[in-house]
Amino acid sequence: MKRRNKMILIISAGLLVIGYLGYQKIYKSRDIMIDDVKTQEYELKLMDIDQTYSTTGNVSSKVDKIITAPFTSEKFTLAADIGDELEKGDVIGIFDDSDIRVSLLTQEKSVISIEYQLDQLKSEGNKSYFSSFESSRISYENAKEIYEKNIELYNSGAISFSELESSKDAMNNSQYTYDLNSSRYYGFNLQNEIDILEKTLEVEKIRLDKLKNDYDKIQLVAEYDGTIVDIFVESGDSVNVGQNLYRIMDLDELEIITQISEYEIKDIKEGQKVIVTILGDDSVIAMGEIIKVYPSAFISGNDATVNIIIDLINPDSALMPGFSTNVEIMIANKKNAKVVPYDALISSPKGYTVIKIVDGVEQIIPVATGIESDLMIEIISDEIKEGDIVKVMSTIDFSNDTKDDGMMFPGKNRLDNEKP
User: Fold this and answer.
1) pLDDT confidence of 13, banded at 50, 70, 90?
2) What are phi and psi of 96, to 5 degrees?
3) pLDDT tens across 168-227, in order?
4) Which residues pair with 258 in a beta bridge?
5) All domains of the chain in start order, with CATH
6) Of 109-123, 245-259, 310-324, where does mean pLDDT reach its minimum?
7) I want to staple 94 with a disulfide (CB 3.0 to 4.6 A). Which of 45, 63, 77, 185 is the partner?
8) Which range among 11-25, 31-45, 334-348 shows the weakest confidence by mean pLDDT?
């Protein structure tokens, strides 16, 4: 029992020490934070202020096409390589023409055959049906006569039962053929048969024209300008109709598709300017413009987002399709606005105020707020003007000029000054 009490005392003492050290650490951090906060006097200036919305997006090409084989070929020879820049009409591959020539000749034969049948039908009418009808009638009558004679021979013992049954089957088969040709002959409609053959001929001619068109495509040519970014076959491979051969993109016509939350989309409009930087290298900057805001949202789980398309204007060559980017959308800007640091604002149930200092005396001035940037915010009040001094409590030193400390204060407008 004494041993147990001793252990409890040791554990309790340890916890007290850990708690004291933790308290000291938190208290010391608090002191550092308090020491970092500076009471400053900020001279209000008229500045240009931009309000932006930041998100991410992926670069894609406006022209992104997969080239497929228009027909089956035993051999396809590549005539271009990945990275080749193409102009419309450039030859990018050659098909072996043996299979297409066989198909072409077979189709031509089919068309000629149907044309002959149609000519015969128009010139001879139902003669062919009558001929078939007469031939089958005579065959049936002969088979019937043989069967009836075989009955007499079987009764006399001259032939076997199997021979009798064989002649009976022959008679039945010839009767079926006779009945079929009889119905064709008496139910024959010349014009209907002609119409059917003419439609069949029309279909076969369409197939022939397609084969001729395919034959003219033995050389595969680019249908638009672009750059080959992927090849799906090896030179000399056999290919099937519809098989992927090349992927071509226009690397000069780029765009970004990104998603905006349903809570932010109200501020996003077509025509707004955009700054784009690559996630891996923020020194690569491109300018853009929103050209499309989709009319409906896409729901994923509990979130709804709206797709927007950003057109990149003269994009940097370092921008490639597939790159992830930071996207900064200009949603509002104002020239010569009355601007103060965020930390100059004091929030109350009645709204915002700032402390204006006049001859060392602090005055509480109600203000409305306008456009806001990362560190600064526009204030609206007739009691505040350019040159007035306001009180700021902040960890950031606002006494230096923006050019000295390099902060992104209003007046350093990237949209005006940065060039792609």
Assistant:
1) very low
2) -70, 135
3) 999 999 998 888 888 776 656 566 777 888 899 999 999 888 888 877 778 899 988 999
4) 308
5) 40-59+253-417 (2.40.30.170), 63-97+218-249 (2.40.50.100), 127-187 (1.10.287.470)
6) 109-123
7) 77
8) 11-25
Q: What is the pLDDT of residue 190?
A: 66
For every residue of the chain, which 3-state class applies, written as one string? CHHHHHHHHHHHHHHHHHHHHHHHHHHHHHHHHHHHCEEEEEECEEEEEEEEEEEEEEEEECCEEEEECCCCEEEEEECCCCCCEECCCCEEEEECCHHHHHHHHHHHHHHHHHHHHHHHHHHHCCHHHHHHHHHHHHHHHHHHHHHHHHHHHHHCCCCCHHHHHHHHHHHHHHHHHHHHHHHHHHCCCHHHHHHHHHHHHHHHHHHHHHHHHHHCCCEEECCCCEEEEEECCCCCEEECCCCEEEEEECCCCEEEEEEEECCCHHHCCCCCEEEEEECCEEEEEEEEEEEEECCCCEEECCEEEEEEEEEEECCCCCCCCCCEEEEEEEEEEEEEEEEEEHHHCEEECCEEEEEEEECCEEEEEEEEEEEECCCEEEEECCCCCCCCEEEEEECCCCCCCHHHHCCCCCCCCHHHHCCC
pLDDT tens across 42-65, in order? 888 888 888 888 899 999 999 999
Cα(92)–Cα(85) distance, integer angstroms: 11
Q: What residue has token string 């560190």? A: 375
Q: Give the per-residue pLDDT at 183.
A: 75
Strands 73-78 and 346-348: unpaired
Q: At how many degrees (to 10) do helices 161-186 and 127-155 cross?
A: 160
| pTM of the model as a whole | 0.56
Segment 217-220 long-range contacts (CB within 8 Å, at least 24 positions apart): 217/70, 217/71, 217/95, 218/94, 218/95, 218/97, 218/100, 219/91, 219/93, 219/94, 219/95, 220/67, 220/70, 220/79, 220/91, 220/92, 220/93, 220/94, 220/95, 220/245
The CA distances from residue 286 to 4, 35, 255, in Å, are: 71, 41, 11
